[in-house]
Amino acid sequence: MPNSRPNSRVPSPAAVEAAVAAALLAPGASDAPFWHWRIGYRTLHLYADPARCRAADDPAGRGQTLASGTALHHLRIAFADLGWTCAVDRLPCPPEPDHLAVVTPRPGEPLPGEVVLARSIARRREDLRPYGGRPVPSDCLDRLSQAAAREGAVLHPVEDRAVRRYLMTAIGEGARVPAQMRREEAYVRSTSLAAAQGVLVSAAAGAAGNRFPRGEAEPRSDGASLMVLSTPGDDHLAWLRAGEALSSVLLTATVHELSSGWVSRASRRLRETLADRVTLGHAPQAVLWAGRPPAGVKRLQRTRSQASVDDVLEPLQAQPRHGG
Q1: In the prediction, which pLDDT does 71 show?
Q2: Which Gene3D superfamilies does this entry report, sorted A to Z (predicted)?
């Protein structure tokens, strides 16, 4: 990433390309990201790409909007590392629901912590393997909660044994349904391991406690902390903000040398149970887990998205290439 500070009122083409390249490393960015950017003279516009998302799999657009929010956050903090603050107008044009945000970079000093987050982007891995047995320190969990709060979301640790058991059973049951596997993989795969398995829900069960038969007292723990990310509302703006919060939490976990993972699809029944028992009425948006990697385990190699900056960046007035 370029390290020069701004010397004009408009980011250079190199700075824009670096920030968009960082967005391509966001959680949920697959070989064909569900979003793209259009660039004006002073602004970047984030659009959802309906052509890259099957309506039958995500009829309301929750998954696509959340994934777009992770890209928005990655772009923001990448600009911060380059000496630009970003004013963001979210959902600027209600008649155009695919127009998710307008970003206006301005010269300015980064907020505390933004640079270290930006420099963890390239180090973040979606680690689906079982974790070590050491619990995550409480101060690290506090930092994850603060990261969510900065983006308008709440991170709830799942501490109740009965709720944890129910949640892990639900994740395990979801992993046994082939159609659910395929739908989940389409939204949240981000590593070669996930893509090869084609099943992130199943991996979630393995990483955060392993699947277990009905009636067992407690799923086996591997030291992972299980958390639910929630927002006060449950509309497109809430989903976009949840994506920004998810990005912030996962990058903060990387800063603290934690392995992490997440899933966002859930049945209505599971969402209602989480809202009642965990999030205290807030809308559950994603389930996350974080833990210490086992000693001696090699760091995963990151598989980058096959999409390039040119694939997801076009002039504002150009004819959309992907139907956005």
Answers
A1: 97
A2: NADH Oxidase
